[in-house]
Design brief:
Elements: E1 7-17, H1 23-32, E2 45-53, E3 57-66, H2 76-80, E4 85-91, H3 95-111, E5 117-123, H4 135-144, E6 148-151, H5 160-174, E7 194-195
The structure holds guanosine-5'-triphosphate and magnesium ion.
Protein name: DRAB5-RELATED
Pfam families: Ras
InterPro entries: P-loop_NTPase, Small_GTP-bd, Small_GTPase
Length: about 200
């Protein structure tokens, strides 16, 4: 619920990353508080909405969860175009997904919105015993490319709300008065649930 006098920011957010890294699982954890051990691969893209109420603003996220399979790559620009925020996801137990995530960052730097808030996310933190990508390597790449870095687990919910809260805070700071993002709700199934989080 928007607080009186509180500004409202509508922000398009896109998730990008290799197949199986946990993009859908991150969103489902954030939007519905759910996790599935056998999450189906996304076909094309899926759309979700969620609202975060901060002290300084109410952020309405329009979330585009893209499909990581290579055959859907050409669709990606449609989803990151006009996005106010991007979450680039890799899986800490797969070096290949880290390499792929770095390529997504390069594509966004070439073709995305230059003011985009970008989060570099190392998911599946619960699989630490199978870790192939060190925390420092993710952190360093993120720093060098002006992104913030977070290790998460959609399975245990570790750092999931923190991730979206941090994005919301940065959006509120970057867009002091005017709404941002593109509303594509009419093309898609929209699921809205309000979440009150992280204020104060
Ligand atoms: N252990 C563990 N498994 C996870 C985690 N997040 C996702 N998974 C599992 O990883 C698999 C792939 O997750 P998805 O969320 O479908 O991955 P995705 O990135 O959306 O994949 P695409 O839609 O194909 O691009 C599923 O079996 C999930 O249960 C996590 O944090 N920890
Ligand atoms: Mg998916």
């Amino acid at each position: 619920m928007a607080r009186p006098g509180n500004k409202i920011i509508q922000a398009k957010l896109v998730l990008l990353g290799d197949m199986g890294t946990g993009k859908t699982s991150l969103v489902l954890r954030f939007v519905k508080g759910q996790f599935f051990d056998h999450q189906e691969p996304t076909i094309g893209a899926a759309f979700f909405t969620q609202i975060l109420s901060l002290t300084e603003a109410t952020v309405k996220f329009d979330i585009w969860d893209t499909a990581g399979q290579e055959r859907y790559h050409s669709l990606a620009p449609m989803y990151y175009r006009g996005a106010a925020a991007a979450v680039i996801v890799y899986d800490i137990s797969s070096m290949d997904t880290f390499v792929r995530a770095k390529r997504w960052v390069q594509e966004l730097q070439r073709q995305g919105n230059p003011n985009m808030v970008m989060a570099f996310v190392a998911n599946k933190l619960d699989l630490d015993s199978k870790r192939e990508v060190q925390n420092e390597d993710g952190e360093q790449f993120a720093q060098e490319n002006g992104m913030f870095f977070m290790e998460t687990s959609a399975k245990t919910a570790q750092n999931i709300n923190e991730l979206f809260y941090e994005i919301a805070k940065r959006l509120a700071r970057a867009h002091p008065s005017k709404p941002t993002g593109v509303n594509l709700n009419d093309e898609t199934e929209s699921r809205t649930r309000r979440l009150f989080c992280c204020s104060g």
